[in-house]
Amino acid sequence: MAVILFRCRLNYFNEFQGNLKPVLFINSFIFENRTRFSNAQNKIIQQTFKKMKKLSIILSLFLCAFLESNAQQFKVITSVESIVPSGMGRSRIIDAQEDKDFEDFTSEQTDEDNTRNKSKRSEIRVKNFEETKLLNFYNIAGIRFQNIAANDAVISSKLSALAAEGWELAFVTSAVEADAGQNDGQGIFITRYVFKKD
Known about the structure:
Elements: H1 2-18, H2 22-33, H3 39-69, E1 73-82, E2 91-96, H4 121-124, E3 129-134, E4 138-139, E5 142-143, H5 145-164, E6 168-177, E7 188-197
Antiparallel strand pairs: 1-2, 1-7, 2-3, 4-5, 6-7
Helix pairs in contact: 1-2, 2-3
């Protein structure tokens, strides 16, 4: 009896490590051999089978929880720096503090249905965000390099803080809307930092 139970447990673990079919193996083993054992022996085998089944369920739940916890997250922060002459405009780092689901504001157009997207701006707008002040590139005398250095230091501090929270900088993209001269008065340098976390 001890030898039979030992083989049963050993085969269970070998089968579990091999192709993850321990329950089926034990079940067939008991079905084929239940007439060879006494009632007491059958009871012990059934108890062992139940414990193995519970173990399989627990391991499955643990695996699901592990995979769920490893879902990748993304975060975007944006720096906007004014490049308007004479120090006009505002410069900021913007970090949204609430989540949005893009599917809430997405519509699909087809040949049969070309209804326009009716999402409201007020529903898309984020009112909870972190705003960090930066300096404009220009002052009244022209471009001011101290302001650029100051912005670099503040942005570096922000990136370091996010890295300490476990965020990894994945991509950086930037663009410029240049001042077109007379009657324009607009100009920004915008940079988006895309972070990811496993």
